Amino acid sequence: MKIITNWLRSNKGFIAxxxxxxxxxxxxxxxxxxxxxxxxxxxxIGDRVLADRLAYDVKVPFTDxxxxxxxxxxxxxxxxxxxxxNGVRLVKRLVAVPGDVVEMRDEQLTINGVALQYQPAAGQxxxxxxxxxxxxxxxxxxxGKQHGIIEMPDRSAxxxxxxxxxxxxxxxxxxxxxxxxxxxxxxxxxxxELITGQVRRVLFSLDQDHYYLPRWNRIDATL
Length: 223
Prior knowledge:
Elements: H1 2-10, H2 12-27, E1 29-33, E2 47-52, E3 57-59, E4 66-69, E5 78-82, E6 89-96, E7 101-105, E8 108-111, E9 114-115, E10 117-120, E11 136-142, E12 145-151, E13 161-165, E14 170-174, H3 184-187, E15 190-191, E16 195-207, E17 213-214, E18 221-222
Antiparallel strand pairs: 1-2, 2-16, 3-4, 5-6, 5-16, 6-14, 7-8, 7-13, 8-9, 10-11, 11-12, 14-15, 16-17, 16-18
């Protein structure tokens, strides 16, 4: 016991720093390493993104208990959240809010009776690594918000569902890599208290296929 007491006394500054960092990450802002290709072309494997934990709610640190609402999540936001299926933290695009009626037919979304507009994306975009089938990069207009998605016509995927109504206090999440994402089509709607932050920028990115060299063009990139 004396050894432990002496160690704690000798390292109290370091311990305070670690506790402060944990509190900061739990309550204010957190960083998250993108582990999969489910958000290509928007987010790449190896991106380190910053999640603003105060964007929507103030929570009791280390819990999902909401103390105060700050703002409501809106369609098009990129968010981190705890999967209702297995508790794993995920990052996806928030596509529909409570009360929305959502339908997907052959990859195309309709929200509240309005069919979203789609067109091929111009220029070069990052594609899913280690996938040899066709990949189509398409611009999706999410009721006024443009962003890129990827479709894989040769891959087996859930391309149609609904119509469904998003329940009160819950949200529908989809990956931008539509045919390679475990999102609300598989895990269900996401309750507000499970949302852990909003992602607005990439801090930096390391390319694991090229010796983890930095992707210089993604340093402090806004989304």
